[in-house]
Amino acid sequence: MHHVTLRGSYEQMGRRQGRLLKGLTLPPPDQKMLRLSKQCEEIMSQYVPELLDEIRGLAEAAELDYETLATLTLTAPFE
Q: How far apart are CA 8 and CA 29, in angstroms?
C-alpha cells in the first residue's frame, strides 16, 4: 500500500494526489448519478467548499474531467 503525507491547502493536496493518479481512466457516470452529484455539490459548497477544491485540484493534476471525478467521488457507495 502506498502512503502519502499531504500538506498545504486542500487544492494543493488534491494536486499532489492527482499527480500520483495521472493516467487513471474513469468510467463515465450515468445521468442519474450526474444529477445526484450536482445536488451534493451544491450542499458541499455551502458547508465544506474546501473538499470541492481538493477534488478540483486532483482532477486538474491527474488530467481527469472534473465533473466525472466529482460524480464518482460524491456518489460513491460507502459500506
A: 30
Distance CA 17, CA 61 (A): 8
Exposed e or buried b per residue across 3-20, where buried means at least 16 C-beta atoms within 10 angstroms of its C-beta: eeeeeeebbebbbbbbee
- Residue 77, CB half-sphere, CA atoms under 13 Å: how many? 1
Average pLDDT for consecutive 10-residue bins of the chain (79 residues)?
Answer: 88 95 92 94 96 97 96 84
Are residues 58 and 15 in contact, defined by beta-carbon separation less than 8 angstroms? yes
Grid coordinates representing 12? 494543493
